[in-house]
Amino acid sequence: MLILVINPGSTSTKVAIFDGDKKIVQKSLRHDIKELEKFDDIMEQEELRKKAIIDFVKEEGYDIADFSAIACRGGILPPLQSGTYEVTAEMVDYLKFKTPVKHASNLAAVIGYSISNGSIPVFITDPVSVDEMVEEARLSGIPEISRRSLAHALNIKAVAREVAKELGKKYEDLNMVIAHLGGGISVTAHEKGKMIDVNNANDEGPFSPERTGELPVGDVIRLCFSGKFTRNEIKKMFVGKGGVVAYLGTNNMQEAIEMAKKDEKAKLVVDAMAYQIAKEIGGMCSVLKGKVDAIVITGGIAHNTKFVEKIKCYVYKFAPVFNVPGEFEMEALAKGALRVLKGEETAKKWGEMYETA
Ligand SMILES: Nc1ncnc2c1ncn2[C@@H]1O[C@H](COP(=O)(O)OP(=O)(O)OP(=O)(O)O)[C@@H](O)[C@H]1O
Ligand SMILES: CCCC(=O)O
After folding, report:
1. Which compartments does it reside in (predicted)?
2. Number of domains the chain is built from
3. In a domain, 311, yes or no
4. What does the buried/exposed string (b/e) look like for 161-189 if buried means 16 or more CB atoms within 10 Å of the residue's CB?
5. pLDDT by residue (tens digit) across 289-345?
6. CATH no. for residue 84?
């Protein structure tokens, strides 16, 4: 069963072809930043990216009709249960016109649906808005604001299943705290297969290579009303230009860790990020009432074992720590589609998407 996988990022589109769960080829199709900047809205990039994907398929010697399904990264959808969903015209309409957050991942299902043109099924699996939070976690302290479950759910759920396998158990039988350390950072508590609390990786938790995470709210209000910044400038300060890049001028953690070897300020910033991640992990361990089978560190930054050690020295007493560097999004998307094609799981439909766990 051939599956075409589509995963758009801000400046590239990752594509892969799987035969069952075996990856045949994966490529990162780089888009010219100047070309992308011509578009005011991410959705206007649809045709450019679609053409690049179709060219890739042809260059690899395939035709769209050869595929059993297209597996796409899920975009910013309303809160929904974990699992694989069939892409429908309504979902495409939501991603194009109604989603509250402009994010490159919104393009995946839109492009997949257009490429398929009704000829083969199109699926998304575990989008950013997977929501299995317990009710206590939703309260922020003011009724006008609810905490939201936005996290690197696709990689986190895939890694959870791999670690469970390593432990000879099922994900549904374990309690875990899983931290994805990428450009943004998601720290998540899992109770028997449900992600019951997460720091919203855009707004809360530790600072990351390019985001501030949680901030002292009184100072944020002062900044917002200082008259010195526009709304967009402030937003960029928090997401995109906040965190490590604000202190050190780079969002590349490899560079920051190198700088920290010679420079006291850089060392403090790197150590502070590890400290804040550990603090968030500790909080998630208490959400699980201290019954934690595994703490898992994943994402690009987890490639640096010295950085992982910095976190580990704070949290190692809570549970065994597993390091699973990198991300497995393409594999997770292919496997999600495959489970449905093999009849192991039924694809959920749009109408069910508004139901949370
Ligand atoms: N070997 C490494 N050592 C330390 N940091 C690394 C290493 N490889 C990648 N990174 C860092 O990981 C971060 C990006 O991680 P990753 O590739 O998981 O994120 P992304 O896909 O860009 O963003 P996100 O995971 O938030 O969607 C960057 O800061 C990058 O410098
Ligand atoms: C909000 C979590 C996902 C992302 O950062 O892209």
Report:
1. Cytoplasm
2. 2
3. yes
4. bbbbeebeeebeebbbbbbbbbbbbbbbb
5. 999 999 999 999 999 999 999 999 999 999 999 999 999 999 999 999 999 999 999
6. 3.30.420.40
53/153 same-domain check = no
Task: Encode pLDDT of 36-68 as tens digits.
Answer: 878 888 899 999 999 999 999 999 999 999 999
293: containing domain = 135-326
Phi, psi (degrees; rounded to nearest 5) at 76: -85, 95
What is the end-to-end Cα distance of the chain in Å, rounded?
A: 31
User: Which residue has the least CA distance to atom 17 on ligand 1?
Assistant: 300
Which residue minimizes the CA distance to atom 1 of ligand 1? 303
Beta bridge partners of 326: 299
Same domain, 33 and 119: yes
Nearest-5° Cα angle at 127, 121 to 129: 135
Note the Cα 208 to chain centre separation in Å: 14
Quote ipTM for the complex.
0.95
Please say whether the beta carbons of 131 and 356 come within 8 A.
yes
184 Cα: distance to centroid of ligand 2 (angstroms):
6
Spatial contact of 87 and 112, defined as CB atoms under 8 Å apart: yes
Rounded distance, CA 343 to CA 321, Å?
34
Please check whether residues 298 and 345 belong to one and the same domain.
no
Query: Does ligand 2 have an atom closer than 6 angstroms to the CB of 278?
Result: no
Phi and psi, residue 199, nearest 5°: -85, 125
| CA distance linking residue 325 with residue 125, whole number of Å | 21
Which sign does the torsion angle of CA 124, 108, 113, 162 carry? Answer: negative
Instruction: Give the distance (Å) from ligand 2 centre to CA of residue 50.
Output: 23
Query: Is it the case that residue 10 has pLDDT exceeding 80?
Result: no
Question: pLDDT tens-digit profile of 179-206?
Answer: 999 999 999 999 999 999 999 988 999 9
Q: For residue 186, give the ligand 2 atom closest to its CA.
A: 2
pLDDT for position 32:
82
Residues 186 and 163: their CA atoms lie apart, in Å, by: 17
Edge-to-edge strands of the sheet including 2-8? 22-30, 12-19, 2-8, 69-73, 122-125, 84-86
35 and 71 inside one domain = yes
Helices then strands, each counted (H, E), the chain: 12, 11
